[in-house]
Amino acid sequence: MTIKRLFIANRGEIALRVLRTAHKMGIETVLGVSEADSASLPAQLAGATVLLGPGPSAQSYLAIETVVAAAKAQGCDAVHPGYGFLSENAAFARSVAQAGMVFVGPAVETLEGMGDKLAARALALAAGLPVLPGGDAETAQDVAARAAQTGYPLLLKAVAGGGGKGMRRVDAPDQLDAALAMARAEAQASFGNPAVYVERFVARGRHVEVQILGDGTNAIHLGTRDCSIQRRFQKLVEEAPAPAMPEEARAAIEQAAVRLARHIAYRGAGTAEFLVDADDFSFYFLELNARIQVEHPVTEAITGVDLVEQQLLVAMGHRLTLTQAMVRPHGHAIEVRINAEDPDADFRPSPGTVRRAAWPAGPGIRVDSHIANGGEVPPFYDSLVGKLIVHGATRAEAVARMDAALRHLAIEGLPTTTPLHRRILADPRFVAGGVDTGFLAGLNPTGSNP
Amino acid sequence: MTADLPLTAEDVAEIAEILAHSGYREMDLATRRFRLRVSRPQGSEAGAEEGMTQEWQWAGNAPAASSETAAEAAADPDVVASPLPGTFYHAPQPGAPPFVAVGDAVTPDTVVGIVETMKLMNPVHAGRAGTVAAVLAANGALVAKGAPLLRLC
Question: Per the CB < 8 Å rule, is A353 touching B63?
Answer without folding.
Answer: yes
